[in-house]
Amino acid sequence: MLSRLLRNDEPSVYSQVAWEDVADEALPRPPLREGWATSRLKVSTRVPLAQAYFDQGLSLLHLGWGPEARRAFAEAARLDPELAMAWWGLALSRGPGARFVAARAEAMARALALSEGLPDVEQRYIIAASLLAEKGPANGRHAFVREMESLIDRYPEDAEAKLLLAGFLADGYEPDGRPGQGQPYAQVLLRELLRTHPDHAGVHYAWVCAVLPSPRPEAARESAQRLTQLVPGTSTAMLAAGRLWGRLGALDAANRVLASAVESDDVYLAGESLPVEFAPCAEMAMRLLSQGCAEAGQYSEAQTWARRLRQRVESAGGEPQALVFAATTLVSAHLRFGFFRAAADVPLEFEGDLSPAERGLRDGVRSYTKGINALDLGRLSEVERACDALAVLQSTLSERRRTDGRRLCPRDVARVVEVAEQELRGALEARRGEGGRAEATLIRAWRMERRLRPAGPAAFSRPARETLARVRLRDEREQKALELARALVEERPGCGHFHLLLAEARVATGERGSAVQDFATFLERWRDADSHLPELRRARTYVAGQGRLLRLVHNADAPFPVPSDFRPREKVSC
After folding, report:
1. What domains, with CATH codes, occur in the chain?
2. Of 82-86, 349-353, 401-405, the least confident
3. H/E run at residue 368
4. Whether 496 contacts 526, CB under 8 Å
5. Between 463 and 455, residue with greater pLDDT
6. In terms of Cα–Cα distance, which of 64, 338, 327 is closest to 210?
7. Where are the TPR repeats (predicted)?
8. Are 269 and 262 in contact (CB under 8 A)?
9. What is the CA angle 222-89-273, rounded to 5?
10. Between the chain's N and C termini, which has fewer beta carbons within 10 Å?
11. Distance separating alpha carbons of residues 375 and 384, to the nearest angstrom
12. Helix (H) or strand (E) run with residue 15 in it
């Protein structure tokens, strides 16, 4: 989708993408892949194979696979050097960042030079794209939209033009839930395309990406299913479908699709003898698989995917940025289950020179995990020192310049570190009995968490709202805690941890019948969970007693207490 390619909307495990520094003319020839081209746009060429490669490139452009789209466009240009639209495709698929301004401009200049005498529709495509190449996606936005609107007005049956415009306009949602600029317009275009072109994979991909962050992701359920049928070997499509299923709470389906994305990338790499880092989605899919397993209570499996990710990036040469991302994935798996010592013991020493952002993320994770482990052990002075270290680190990183392209940005890391510092500090204040201050601090952490850039690193701390809910339970603000728990379950209905929190809040408010139902729902979500986890025993004990437990005393930093006759196994680091 055009917005993702031009604006770098995706977090990046590796600092570079495939063939980033290779000139268009030197790109290796791709195979013509059956089933990948669901786009059809007639262009001015007498070489049928050039048309086929152009359609393949356009299809992959719509599916967000920029490097492979660029290879297809380059092959079309080799087969027919006079094909202006092939150079148009090369300009659009070059990738974000100031590094490639000259390369985009060169490709666009070739397209403009070859456009004289072409049909009007092709000239309009080229002119619109030239405005983006010249001014960039931000400054050239208005002019590009106006030119594409003129093209669509003149050629209302051109589905590819509508899809390109919709893919460019899809801006996601603001932290308060309001659609971004152009988002409603994009959705109107996509709804029409879903009706007129039900077998176009690019339309379904764009619709899934547009609706995924919205309050109603269920609207894209059918499109997620169609993607797995239309382009099952395209990992970018599988990644989008897996994310949608995960958002809907269908974790089993999500994990199957995400695992197929990893498999598709491995088949792709093996078929062309490419290095591991050229896979478009495998690393991101593995991070999501670890997260999905953690939500389903599969602690061992969550660790397995995190360790597979680390082994994978190490086999690719151990790029520091990739190693830091892999390490935070394993840390998050431990933290999600409250194994704080295991999180603090994750190795964070990497060979080679780290950039300020990479070093900052590594040091932030190290300080936070030491602090949360100290909090669990009651060493409050150590927690205070960890909070202070995180605050200093955040201030230092925020003063550094923003980076270009896919390299980790210090300011993005600063935001993530600030969230972690505020969440840890709020938990510390709650432990000291400073309920009002803890509440204010955790609300700040929650608001910061909502404003994290999608393209930056994921938050490695505990969810601020979950910690806030437990603080409210401890301070006997049960109804407020219940409201937060409900909101968390609505956003991630497949997450067992949130269902458990909701059940605990029901117990605190005296809603015993509802608590039994919520505990039962939690047990269903964790039906394949690791059997040793104490959360399972607590839920089963309550359900077996049909909610006859009395009101429980809650702690802001741990799950609610269990019956006096229950002795859970001691947690061990895995």
Report:
1. 24-169 (1.25.40), 297-477 (1.25.40), 478-573 (1.25.40)
2. 401-405
3. helix 356-376
4. yes
5. 463
6. 64
7. 50-83
8. no
9. 80
10. C
11. 9
12. none
